[in-house]
Amino acid sequence: MAPPDEYKQYAAHPDSHADPEQQALLPGPGPGPDIPPPPAPRQRPKSAYAYPALAFVAGALACLAAQLLFCASGCFSRSSPAPSAYPTDAHVLAPPYAGSTQVHRFPPASPSNAAPSLFPTSVGFAGITPTGAEPALVATAPSYPVHTGAPQLVAPSPTKLRNGTSAERFDLFKLWGNLSPWYSVGRGAFGVDAGPEPPETCRVTGLHFLHRHGARYPTSFASYGGPANFSGRLHEAAAGWNGTGDLEFMNEWTYKLGEEVLTPFGRQQLFDLGVSLRLKYGFLLENFTAANAIPVFRTESQDRMLASALNFAVGFFGYPFEGQYQQSITIEADGFNNTLAPYKTCPNARIAAKSDRAIPYVREWAGIYLSDALARLQPQLKGYQLTVEDVYTLQQMCAYETVAIGYSKFCELFTEEEWEGFNYAMDLYFWYDSAFGSPVAKVQGIGYVQELVARLTHTPIPTHNSSTNATLDDDPLMFPLGQSLYVDATHEVVVLNVITALNLTSFARDGPLPADHIPPNRSFRVSQLAPFATNVQFQLLSCASTPGPQIRVIINDGVVPLTGIRGCPADKDGMCPVDAFVAAQKEIIGQTDWEWGCHGTWEVPAGPAWNTTTGEPPRRGEVVG
Ligand SMILES: *[C@@H]1O[C@H](CO)[C@@H](O)[C@H](O)[C@H]1NC(C)=O
Ligand SMILES: *[C@@H]1O[C@H](CO)[C@@H](O)[C@H](O)[C@H]1NC(C)=O
Ligand SMILES: *[C@@H]1O[C@H](CO)[C@@H](O)[C@H](O)[C@H]1NC(C)=O
Ligand SMILES: *[C@@H]1O[C@H](CO)[C@@H](O)[C@H](O)[C@H]1NC(C)=O
Ligand SMILES: *[C@@H]1O[C@H](CO)[C@@H](O)[C@H](O)[C@H]1NC(C)=O
Ligand SMILES: *[C@@H]1O[C@H](CO)[C@@H](O)[C@H](O)[C@H]1NC(C)=O
Ligand SMILES: *[C@@H]1O[C@H](CO)[C@@H](O)[C@H](O)[C@H]1NC(C)=O
Ligand SMILES: *[C@@H]1O[C@H](CO)[C@@H](O)[C@H](O)[C@H]1NC(C)=O
Ligand SMILES: *[C@@H]1O[C@H](CO)[C@@H](O)[C@H](O)[C@H]1NC(C)=O
Ligand SMILES: *[C@@H]1O[C@H](CO)[C@@H](O)[C@H](O)[C@H]1NC(C)=O
To answer: Do you know which InterPro entries this protein is assigned to (predicted)?
Structure first.
């Protein structure tokens, strides 16, 4: 279908929210104080690599041709326009062109030894293949399995970390906001002293599972920080700078990250998530067998979203998963109604003046927590003027390199306090961009909430007036009701939108978040709510002790208090009767106005002159500012 006309107005701003996960941080309307003047055009010592560059271009063309052929038979293109800042010749650069991009393209476009007929994927003779019973770890084990995060990745040894005196307490991987690998947050982390295992007299009857994709390369755009941009600027200035001391390694360093797609570790995260869900909740498949049906899982068309879902499926169902479930791949592109990518039909979410509220907060906070680091690092990088934003980018570089290539020398450059500062910068960003501090958070989360209510009540969505898609949601095969297991994949921004829309107000208790200090014991932590492969369990329970079906919300294995939701009692295990939960969510749906939130002509002033802590815009007729 053709996107509606109103999209033309912002189609002209390719760098404005072109991607849902603008890696902290999104394009602002213009350069701020920290952004250096535009660099001079790239200079390349032509003689050094003119020939390899040509050879590469030829290879790239062949590769493109192969891709076109492949796509003609119906593949999904990368949804990001990805205007690579790094031309295809970059892979031939090596030291001494420090800061350059290094790319290795695998597989080769037409490998000389490819002989598919000699390597059939099925040859019979599989041996004995009986299966066993479904696991139910969530109910059968004496304790719930804890996920510690990132077994394949390497952190600097405590002695390498700057002033790493509190090494035991200091877990670097948990201080990266949305770039942290997901981990079990621990019993009581969100204020309910209970684990994810069903309470004494209860058993699990169903699960609605919402998860994020795994670790990825940086997104293509950033308005604050952005590793590719920084490495590009270093490269442009290659002849002029020299790292010494802690930064001496940069003289030989090359930029090795791609864009947008899953990293090998990200792939593992989703595979592991699938395995762990099967171990904990495999017994829910018995309902499908009883009903002579298979599950439907959902993801979106974007490369990393599809790859995440399929890796999850390999973990959950094993290889080959064909025939065991059906994968719905919804279109993530401008103008397509999609509850898992609501920003694609919500113009106000993409108008910089309304959505880029987060940047000034991050900029202000970075200026505070990184001032020592800037003073420390600048003398060690002779001939290159570092800004606070650059130093912030070095922290991003640590996280991105680690989840992509397993280790990063940049991680050693900062103190624990500076990592706490980085983590909080991420909280600020997402609070104001995607959660309780954003005027367009609730309205974007509401579509998924409508679907959740439909599934919980076994009743189709009555009116399609948000991001819901009638073609999908009204089709009982595409969007089945009354199932025991649902799995949906999405982005961190959408997980935060949904948390906001659901009225999980315990996470809003410290808002509006201040830019000049970290509130003590804050409850809103993006590394706990929306890290790579973050996952939300909507757990359905039947209890001997409590009448009627119960629901719990469990984020990264932490039970969430539901006491902010009208009608939900203060329960020691975090349970709420499904009826009360649904009634409150219907009330929230009734109060949420997509037309106004996404298309209304409201304005809000920048910065703290206007605050929301419910993720809503000003009401119709309300004058602010
Ligand atoms: C590290 O510790 C030393 C000695 O305690 C102190 O002088 C220095 O300022 C600290 N550096 C940073 C970056 O915190
Ligand atoms: C910190 O917050 C958690 C929940 O978010 C709460 O359970 C705990 O009591 C708080 N601790 C302090 C010292 O306030
Ligand atoms: C870095 O970003 C700035 C501001 O958006 C842009 O002007 C500049 O061209 C970028 N530099 C590189 C090397 O990508
Ligand atoms: C970089 O600085 C170091 C230490 O001052 C010096 O020994 C080295 O020659 C410098 N390298 C370049 C390329 O200027
Ligand atoms: C609903 O989703 C389907 C499949 O992704 C898509 O083809 C269709 O265009 C969507 N409808 C709207 C109104 O966006
Ligand atoms: C797509 O969303 C718009 C806005 O909520 C709605 O008017 C329209 O009916 C939806 N289309 C479908 C096919 O669901
Ligand atoms: C799944 O089956 C169990 C056991 O028969 C039952 O208690 C539960 O209600 C079923 N769940 C759904 C969603 O039908
Ligand atoms: C949402 O949360 C606010 C603040 O806790 C509360 O006053 C309101 O009743 C809640 N609304 C619903 C429908 O749960
Ligand atoms: C959808 O329409 C219903 C009925 O008119 C209304 O109560 C609700 O607020 C609307 N929902 C959204 C998300 O606009
Ligand atoms: C918004 O929140 C900030 C930080 O808590 C506060 O300083 C400011 O006064 C608030 N603004 C309004 C209009 O309430």
So the answer is: Acid_Pase_AS, His_Pase_clade-2, His_PPase_superfam
